[in-house]
Request: fold
Amino acid sequence: MSLRHGLWQDAWRRLRRNRAALASGVLLIAILCAALLLPLLSPYSYYAPDWDHLIEPPAFRGWHFLGTDALGRDLLVRTLWGCRISLLVGIAASLVTVTIGVLWGTIAGYVGGRVDALMMRSVDVLYSVPFIPFVIVLTVLFGRDLLLIFIAIGAVSWLDIARIVRGQTLALRNREFIEAARVAGVGTPAMILRHLVPNLIGIVIIYATLTIPTVILFEAFLSFLGLGVQSPMTSLGSLVAEGAGRMQSYPHLLLVPAVFLAAIVYAFNYLGDGLRDALDPRDR
Amino acid sequence: MRRYLLRRLLGAIPTLLVIATLAFAMLHAVPGGPFDAARPMEPEIRKAILAKYHLDEPVWQQYLHYLGDLARGNLGPSFQYRGTSVNELIAQGLPVDLAVGGTALLLALLAGTSIGLYAALHRNSRRDWLLMGLAVAGISIPLFVIAPVLVLVFALKLHWLPPGDWVAGSLAHLVLPAVALALPYTAYIARLTRGSALEVLGSAYIRTARAKGLPLRVVMLRHALRPTLLPVVSFLGPAIAGVITGSIVIETVFALPGIGRYFTLGALNRDYTLVMGITILYGALIIACNLLVDLAYALLDPRVRHEP
Amino acid sequence: MSNTATDTAPLLETRALRVTYGTPAGPVSVVREVDLAIRRSEFLGIVGESGSGKSQLLLALLGLSAPGARLTGSIRYAGTELIGAGDAALNRIRGDRIAMIFQDPMTALNPYLSVGVQISEVLELHRGLARAAALRRAAELLDAVQISDARRRLAQYPHELSGGMRQRVMIAMALACEPEILLADEPTTALDVTVQAQILALLRELRARTGTAVVLVTHDLGIVAELADRIAVMYAGRFVEEAPAETLFAASHHPYTEALKRSIPRIDAPLPERMASIPGNPPNPAELPPGCAFAPRCGFSEARCLGAVPLLRALGPQHRSACWRDAHE
Reply:
């Protein structure tokens, strides 16, 4: 117990020293708070058109801080709503990914033998299957349901995590405390859940954090193709796609959501890198 | 070596089978067939067409026909473009993708490895942080943001290059799409190279090389370069497969008549044979490219060469 | 084995050599105020536990310390000051006048290059030989280190050779240009005991033939017992005792040296009830006590040991010890 506590403190100290990761964490929290609170405080809604104020450039003061879009909707509010949806999709899909991957990996690693061989062989086969086209077709086929989108995206990235978790499980399996638990008669499912999973938390956090930007970008990509969330709901990807269409005359429509999207993805990447360095230190 | 190749090829079959089965399932999940829409047909003609495409047989038989066709490399007829097969459409799009994608990857390799090596040699300096920050930007900012911005600046505002379309043989039309496509690859390769170089430069055999009095240039080129680039070779496998099937984003933004564009139009217009055909092509390419990468590794790493 | 040249000037000499690294907790010195002199054909053994700084000392001599190391003091070779000398000057010496072999031949040889290339490149660089001539000479060198079938081995890769053979290749590589000094950083630690003996015998024979001076760093006192002319014992970055080999074994002075000797089981004595070991742990270079670094573990420590660091004092001909005890205590 105490050894594990020491590890976390060490990791936290190392993370704190990594300025890029810290700044990223702060930025993400700031964006999250803004995305949750500002739309509630702003007098503008994200979906109601305002025909008096079509496509106004950013004023940087007063209302319509960042301008309005083609239907007169406040761009800042729209963008923050977009952040909400993108973050929601990102985190939810990442959770799906991580859950599937961890379960698959721990079962394969712990049970071993033919079950392991079969499970990992499936992973190898699925690795070469081009999921992106399939997800695109699924979305076209079954409509643009938010739930479907993040299950589909989530189901795509679990392979990497499954492999890594299996590796870790194999390594952990032969450690003494597992032997001790086994001798004490702990059954397999309880073993996996209570003894193995807590030790995998470090790796899982790192990969979950690094999966989120991939998912957000993929959702943005789907939105760009016109296959993302339905109007008037909007994600950062849809906003960018809308903005790209008019970028010659009204660049702020593209730039505002693009900056938010880039900032979020950037921040998750730096944070993920920082977590990886903190929990598994090697030379940078 | 030959046994290894054989084993890999055999191992590829289940993967291809899975892809083909999934594709077939999708095709049949679509309500209505390829010939239901458009104009109504006389019953006899309709029956003849159904028979020709085996659409009147039970599903499992259609599946077998499908697999048989695939084995012969026949990806079926396009739903959208009546009278044209998927194979023909792919053949039309391929030259565009090879030109743009090939150029992009070449640029990315040259730029990415140079930047990565430079950053590793000047590790933790301000230049290193700047370059790696740009690299993270390159993989964080999506291509569908970068590409339109490039069009905006270089085509629409500065008028240096055309904003899109494809004119075979025209260098001007190649530049912008190739450069845009190269950017995320450059960023990824730069990060990969830097990480790999740092690991190699810290290894014991590099220290031995320095202890022999070899000048830095020799140490880098003869001792460090090959091990540093091996992960890049690995990365190139799927990258090549992706580039051959075309980047959907680049072809949309620049209106290029490549395979990626056909895929998007196919998806939006419900041309499922086209979409699935391209998907299968992509899967097969990934497998083939991974195999090539493994062969390359065997050539480059003597330790792999001597394995049974 | 006493052919120490007592009056010739040293080939390589250090004065107050200190190697310091910057850490988040402040500067840490891993080598402190080392005065070292190596004379022609001399065999110097440097003995110490891990963490004593012995490997860092060797690396510093050739300017191979990790990036971030700061060297102060002086290292003089053939009249040239090596600290601060640029890579160009150092590269003329490395591999040619002073060569080094390392601990783990599996990782110290480049797995992607053939054995032949790794040896011949030294000859091509420092002797200007063409590739073909260099490879011929490389085959002769492999013969000299007793690797059979030398011509075939040239085309092989390190992973195709056994551990002992790899270390012989390293030795061949190092001796290719007939250097004046060979630095050996624990060359036998990663090898089986029988192979260890072979490599040491090889070193002895080569040295007899070529007259190269050797500095052998090890944690095993037994290894240098037979081979070394002189032995320096290192602790916490400093030399704590230096003496001709026979003197060290017959009449050492420093408590650490004595403890080291005691911890080697003797074949001619009855088995002790407990293996003698030195109580405590080697100190962390970042947290050294103010006085003698060995004091916390020393059976003879007194108040003055904790107060000031003892310097090396002459106790006899070429015998120095860094301990506050009198020579006859």
Chain C has a mean pLDDT of 87. The longest strand of chain C covers residues 26-38. Chain C touches chain A through one residue (CB under 8 Å). The domain at 38-64+87-326 of chain C is CATH 3.40.50.300 (Rossmann fold).
